[in-house]
Amino acid sequence: MSLSEDGRLISQIRQGNILALEALYKKYKGQVYRTALAITRDREAAEDVLQDCFLKVYTHVDKLDGSLPLSPWLHRVAVNLSYNWAAKRSRWLRPLEEVIDCLVAGPHTLPESVLERGELQRVIQKAIASLSFEHRVVIVLFYLDGFSLNEIAYISDCPVGTVKSRLHYARRNLRRKLERDRRLSPEVVYEFS
What we know:
Elements: H1 5-14, H2 18-40, H3 43-59, H4 71-88, H5 100-103, H6 111-129, H7 133-144, H8 149-156, H9 160-179, H10 186-190
């Protein structure tokens, strides 16, 4: 059985190759940072989570299974570190609207489409921000990071059934909130059905 790219890099880190750690960092830094930012809603906290994740890779490299993808493990660490950060805070430091530009990027053509897109993002992000921490985490991991239910269960350290339940209730709550907003088309609301 051949080792995956991550497995080869993990093996090289075990042998003391710091450039292999840098390669893993470059490969996953964007994903881990976006996840941490979406959960903490604080750029500095997200940067700290990112650095701590890769510090854990380095300190726990002997425990990592090089035959498995590294991404779910990294995201599990990122979610746990983000949760720890959030638990220490009594309130969020920055409004979620500041995070929108970091989470969603795409081509912009007409000024009115930029305004409409920005308004749509603000409405959706406000609805997501009103969810409980557990519901917000599964929404971020499922919709923004594209993880499967099994991967989210691993990352969240809970059964798949719990992930399904959280995702179901999070979608239902989002759908209700979005249905109340007349600015949104039925297609947007349907996205969370």
